[in-house]
Write a structure and sequence with these properties.
- The chain has 198 residues and is α+β, with helices and mostly antiparallel strands.
- Helix content is 14%, strand content 33%.
- It has one domain.
- The strands form three sheets. Strands 1, 2, 3, 4, 9, 10 and 13 form a seven-stranded antiparallel beta sheet that branches. The chain has a four-stranded antiparallel beta sheet with strand order 7-8-11-12. A two-stranded antiparallel sheet has the order 5-6.
- Strand 3 and strand 4 form a beta hairpin.
- The protein is globular.
- 29% of the residues are buried.
- The C terminus is likely disordered.
Length: 198
């Protein structure tokens, strides 16, 4: 089940987000580093990863631009999202906070992190839900840079719908749909730099 939203709701939000990205109707926030997901009843994440790092999608050094629509309604991925996830530091390694030449890495698989797959607009989409937090690296020129690792906190909206991350691996497009979100700080709209259309 997709958060309580109908497939038609996902179709319309995806179309709106694609149009906003195409027209450049957004402001750049920073580089998305981690998508943090809440635990699921039947999650298949290996026990050591679940215990140490939780259910996350970690982009490591392959961060992607994160933006917000001009009307503050949509979190956008204007440059898309990679279909292959990078390897992550082995959570069992004691020195995982300090990367070195001999740091051990393990595979990060969609099968361990995704909630499943669905068909939207005749396209197979990877589904990850519920999204509870987005962690980004702010651009040095952005007011968010003072925070170091600013976050976007996600929660259920008034109708109990949680944010869902959808990935079209064929087109390498990602979408955040449903729920509500707020930033870890208050920012003036005028303070956010405009990002050119992707």
């Amino acid at each position: 089940m997709l958060t309580r939203l109908k497939i038609s709701d996902f179709e319309s939000r995806i179309k709106i987000q694609r149009d906003r990205i195409r027209r450049g109707e957004y402001h750049h926030l920073g580089m998305l580093s981690v998508i943090s997901l809440d635990k699921e009843k039947d999650q298949t994440l290996p026990a050591d990863q679940a215990r140490v790092i939780g259910r996350v999608i970690d982009l490591m050094g392959n961060r992607v631009p994160l933006a917000i629509s001009n009307d503050d309604q949509d979190i956008l991925l204007p440059a898309g999202f990679p279909k292959e996830l990078p390897d992550i530091v082995d959570p069992n390694w004691p020195g995982r906070q300090t990367l070195a030449e001999k740091t051990p890495y393990i595979k990060q698989a969609w099968g361990d992190r995704a909630s499943g797959e669905t068909i939207i607009n005749n396209t197979s989409m990877i589904v990850c839900m519920p999204v509870i937090k987005l962690i980004m690296l702010a651009d040095p020129s952005s007011p968010l840079a003072k925070l170091g690792w600013p976050m976007v906190f996600c929660s259920a909206d008034g109708m109990g719908r949680h944010m869902t991350f959808l990935l079209d691996p064929r087109k390498q497009e990602g979408f955040f749909v449903g729920g509500k979100f707020q930033f870890s700080t208050r920012l003036s709209r005028a303070a956010l730099p405009v990002m050119a259309s992707a």
